[in-house]
Amino acid sequence: MATVNVVTVANQRAGEVDLPAAVFEVKVKPDLFHAEVRRQLAARHTGTHSTKNRHMVSGGGSKPWKQKGTGRARQGSTRSPQWSGGGVVFGPVPRTYDHSLSKKVRRAALRCALSLRQEENAITVVDELALSEFKTKRVAEILTALGLAEHSVLIVIAEADEKIETSARNLARVGVIRVEGLNVYDVLRYTRLVLTKSAVAALEQRLSEEARKTARAAAKESA
Fold first, then answer.
1. 165: containing domain
2. Could you tell me if 79 and 108 lie in one domain?
3. Quick one: three-class SS letters along 106-171?
4. Is residue 163 located within the same domain as residue 199?
5. What's the whole-model pTM score?
6. Which of the residues 84, 137, 200, 203 has an alpha carbon 20 to 30 A from that of 178?
């Protein structure tokens, strides 16, 4: 279990925290990154592309000319694919690009991504991250104090905080995400992570298989 320093928003040491080995010290498997990122990007594909086949194109109700005697090839409709303005053969139709990946594999991929960032010493833990007002400049000042102004940064918070989420929105290369929405694509897309102390505990509850088993057992007993 790795122990890292906890700092304030002014980058002053405020203690230590243990990063759970089950979440931040697992073997990194790039194949899991590929599988999960591919799933995420496929889910974002809208799949609204569409074309009309000969039955959907309006017009063409009668034969362009009679079947025989004209010297030309027989034609049944001006909406056949070989005609200009005709239907499209085997064209794209609206569909979903989603494909499934088990929740267990998705959790494993996220643990690998967090472990990769821990190996790179790219994780900063702050004791608390709160703003008194909506102010983008204040978020920029905090990142500068933490020495992260020149990096792309993903701020991970334990629960909803409208002031932080809104204030960081206009900063280039800065993102804010809650623990419940943390995903592999965003962890890999940003080079640095800033976690609140409460977010570390929430990540253990979400991603540690042992913690999940304990929570399920407690829920069964209470029921």
1. 2-45+99-222
2. no
3. HHHHHHHHHHHHHHCCCEEEECCCCCCCCCHHHHHHHHHHCCCCCCCEEEEECCCCHHHHHHCCCC
4. yes
5. 0.84
6. 137
